[in-house]
Records
---
Amino acid sequence: SAVISQKPSRDICQRGTSLTIQCQVDSQVTMMFWYRQQPGQSLTLIATANQGSEATYESGFVIDKFPISRPNLTFSTLTVSNMSPEDSSIYLCSVERTPQSGYTFGSGTRLTVV
Amino acid sequence: LAKTTQPISMDSYEGQEVNITCSHNNIATNDYITWYQQFPSQGPRFIIQGYKTKVTNEVASLFIPADRKSSTLSLPRVSLSDTAVYYCLVGPTGTASKLTFGTGTRLQVTL
C-alpha cells in the first residue's frame, strides 16, 4: 500500500494564527482526502483534493477556514486558518492506493490551539 | 454510503477469539465491507476487506452472510497489542470514494 509522510506530527499554536500541514505520498494518486479527528471521536472528512481543481468540501467545512493545495499528484497541504481552541484535533490525510488494499492514512498531525 | 452500526466497546482477555459484528442494512450491490484498526496517535490501518462469504488473511477473518446486511470481524487469539478502535466501513472500491467513519468499536484486551 502507499506510504504517506505527514508533517508536522504535532504542534501547539496560538489562537488566531494558521498552520499548514503537509502530506507527501510515495506514488501518484488522483485524489487525496483530509480528515479531522477530535479527541475521543471518530474521523470526519473535511475535503477531497484533486490535482488541478478546487478541493471539494464537506458540509460544515469551508475553504476560507481550511484552504487546500494540490500542486501535483503526490503532494497536498491543508491549512487551518485563524485557529481557535475548537480546532484542536488530529488532522489526517488519506489516499486509496488500490481497491484491494483499502485506504492508507498518514500518521496524523496533532494540533493543540492555546 | 451505507450507514454502519457496531458496538461502542468490547473487552477481552488475552488469547481469546474476538468477534466484532457490524450491521449495514442498507448496503448496496456494489459496496464492499472494509475494516480498519486504529491505535492511539496513529492513523487507521486497513485490516481486511470482503464482498461476500468469508475472507481470511494473516491478521483476521471476515464473515459475511448471504444477505450482506451484517458482517463479523474475527480476531483469533488476541493479544494486548490488539487493543485499539476497530471501524467497519461500507462502500464501493476502486473509485477513490470518500470514506464515512462510524463510531467504531473500542476493544480492550487485558491479561
Note: Strands of chain B lie at 9-13, 18-23, 32-38, 45-50, 53-56, 61-64, 70-75, 84-91, 105-110.
---
Amino acid sequence: EDQVTQSPEALRLQEGESSSLNCSYTVSGLRGLFWYRQDPGKGPEFLFTLYSAGEEKEKERLKATLTKKESFLHITAPKPEDSATYLCAVSDSNSGYALNFGKGTSLLVTP
Amino acid sequence: NAGVTQTPKFRVLKTGQSMTLLCAQDMNHEYMYWYRQDPGMGLRLIHYSVGEGTTAKGEVPDGYNVSRLKKQNFLLGLESAAPSQTSVYFCASSYLRQPQHFGDGTRLSIL
C-alpha cells in the first residue's frame, strides 16, 4: 500500500497557466513532508519542508501547503523553466531515517 | 562548495562483476544515504549511516554493502552485480534529520 501518492502523474501547462500538484499521504506521526524538484539527469533538489497542518511555504512562483491528509504545490504563472518532475516525500515515526517518496509529477510548461 | 559528489557518473557492468560507488560530501553532514531510482517507482532507500563507522539497512538492502570509514565519504558496493540492479543510484546527506541533499546520481547498467 502506497504511503505517498502524487497526482497527476503528468501535467502540461501553458506559460502563465496556474495549477496545483497534489501529494496525499497515509502515515502516522508525520515528522515532515518534503517537496523536491528533479531535472532530467540530475538529483532531486530540495524545495520545501512542512511540519504541521496549516503550514505554508513560498519560493518565487511556488507555494506549498499542508493539511492532515495531503499537501499541494501551487504553481502561479509558471514559466518554461519550471518544467521538471516534482517529488513529494514524507518522514514519519515508523520510517526511521528513511524518506518515503511518491512517484512524482512530471510538469511541462510550454511557451 | 560542491555539496554531494558521486563517482562515477555512468558505468556498465557484466553480470557477476563487482564495483564500488563513491559518495563524498563537503557539508560536514552526519547522516548519509544511498537510494535507487527505477522507472515508475519512487526513490527507495538502500542503506544509510548516522555517523562515521556506523551503517544500517534501508528498505532494499539485499545485494549491496556499504562502508563509512570517513565522515565525508559513503561507499556503496555491489559484490556480484545482477541485471535487477540496473538503476540510477543517488547519494544524499543531511545534518541530523534536516532535509536531505542529493548528488546527481550514478547511472548503472548491468548486462
Note: The two ends of chain B are 36 Å apart (CA to CA).
